[in-house]
Amino acid sequence: MLTVRHGIAASPxxxxxxxxxxxxxxxTRIFAFVPFVSFVVNFFLTLVLAVVASSAFAQADxxxxxxxxxxxxxxxxxxxxxxxxxxxxxxxxxxxxxxxxGGPAVVVIHGLGVHPDWSLVNALRxxxxxxxxxxxxxxxxxxxxxxxxxxxxPVFPEAAERIAAAARFLRSRGHAKVAAVxxxxxxxxxxxxxxxxAAPALDAWVAVGITTPYSGAExxxxxxxxxxxxxxxxxxxxNAPARAESLRRARGSAQIEVPGADHFFSxxxxxxxxxxxxxxxxxxx
Length: 285
Known about the structure:
Structural class: alpha/beta
Strand content: 15-25%
CATH superfamily of the largest domain: Alpha/Beta hydrolase fold, catalytic domain
Helix content: 25-40%
Order of helices and strands: EEEEHHEEEHEHEHEEHHEH
Largest sheet: 8 strands, mixed
Strand order of the largest sheet: 5-6-8-7-9-10-11-12
């Protein structure tokens, strides 16, 4: 028989059922779903671990940068190592190859998780120096070795600071015109800098194999060469029409697809440099 005490529907105390998911306390029936509680606890533990792991990936791996520097500095053949400094006091490696006084200069920006003398980057900085451009190839922030490209945006603000520091360095050496040549994730970092800097210290930008559409292209105030390979990553090729359309607003910009080239321009390095030189000659000289 159902009774009501103090406005609360209640029933006489019963012994617990065999089902452990239900118990009765006093005169009020309370349902406790043990499997559900277990699920919730496991879910939040998983969430916490994911956040911790994500935070770890989002932190620039400065020890890894130092290992890169120790490995590559003794092997540099073109240019000299220099230390650049951020406003925070943190220093990072650059490789500076000077050219004629007052001539144009290029900041060379590598891609995902590598260093300023890596493969394609070495070809770009060395061959552009041979063509009369001073080059400064800089170490960008890197994450853990197994980090993916989509985990890099949290370090884009520091990447932008490094690009600004590189441009200041080159201008302090008397180079009146400065461009950036950046590859892959490095191009995305450059996009972040160009979009967010109040007055980007660049006169032109070459984006090599950028995987995403441009962000903030309506605010670009410099000419951009968008260049990629016929056999590039699908994301690069698929987004090419959107990039071309957005660059219509940036006066003097262009897009080039290099026949037969892959994302790293393997075997097409010299052809890539010829396209870049032709563009920079038009914009900087």
